[in-house]
């Protein structure tokens, strides 16, 4: 049959076929299939799959497409982005999908940012960082060299690290450059804390002193303890300084005058940590905004109200066990809502409003693990060999980093965490700077830092 005649015949047949009922169309197709040979059947088979396909993302309203996409895991979504430009456009436009994916990775989400491409990029960045953590490749190390004797005291704030040493000096370092900004002559330092103008030191000579960075001058001397001062904290607004000592006491001082306002007793061991913090929850004993003092020894944590009044009584004593062979690790976390401390029994978290134990976390091989930092999503821990990151949602260790043979200290001030905001959730910006610092037997300071994103 000539092409022209065939096309005319096909047009007539098509018109007649369209006028048939569905049943008649089916019978016609059955008859044509029965007349077909292998070549025709193969052609039919190859084209049926394409004819039956429907691009549901293209056909559905955008709201329904977004609803369906929310049921897919992020890795599948990334694969779906490769199906077509249309699929990539729809999937990339679903803000909630990428925000949820970031949340599931422990990322902080700012709901005010509604740009979906931004969240897709954040997710891809998050995937890279989490892979680095899993593969133990997220950090790098460096050292600070400058002291000539044991470094016993460390304190970190806003990119600056203060070190106090038995060489009768304290130094302030810029962690990002490794440069020493200030170096002043002091007494032996067992504890340090600083701000822009001053440095406060607790010493093995049983005193506390306040120094001026710019001149190195001693501006105040606090005398009264009969044992080494292992921990200090202060608040300029209250004009109060607190100190914990090997004489089993906590002293409250007027920061500006050096006058001892009160001596808090009740501890039966060295007081190795004092924390002065605003309360953020309400209970029968305190209200939001009240200042609270926590003091810890080897076995107990004591809670004291504090303010401009001189006298105060212990509100509560917390412990993990009545067995005196179970001791607390030297680090203590208090953010105004929760108290957290580690022991050989696990990581204990107390609700500050009720003083009830909320949970006890027991990761594998926890007996020698100490607490460094505790947030809403992650906790930072360490032992003699490794630095650990714990996902608090699953209570599983997600990363570790090897540590050198650092200087061991039962009191615990010779090591500390650096930047802490990432413990409440990474955001692609806060995974920079110092993670961990510890003093070494050669008097240097070993730093663990976030590695830049690949």
UniProtKB/TrEMBL annotation:
Annotated TM spans: none
Coiled coil: none
Highest taxon above the source species: Eukaryota
Stored Gene3D superfamilies: 1.20.1280.50, YVTN repeat-like/Quinoprotein amine dehydrogenase (2.130.10.10)
UniProt key word Zinc: no
SUPFAM superfamilies: F-box domain, WD40 repeat-like
Swiss-Prot/TrEMBL keywords: Acetylation, Repeat, Ubl conjugation pathway, WD repeat
Mapped WD repeat ranges: 144-183, 222-263
SMART domains per UniProt: FBOX, WD40
InterPro entries, per the entry: F-box-like_dom_sf, F-box_dom, FBXW2, WD40/YVTN_repeat-like_dom_sf, WD40_PAC1, WD40_repeat_CS, WD40_repeat_dom_sf, WD40_rpt
Record-annotated F-box domain positions: 54-101
Keyword Acetylation: yes
Pfam family, one: WD40
Record's subunit section: Directly interacts with SKP1 and CUL1.
Function, in words: Substrate-recognition component of the SCF (SKP1-CUL1-F-box protein)-type E3 ubiquitin ligase complex.
Official protein name in the record: F-box/WD repeat-containing protein 2
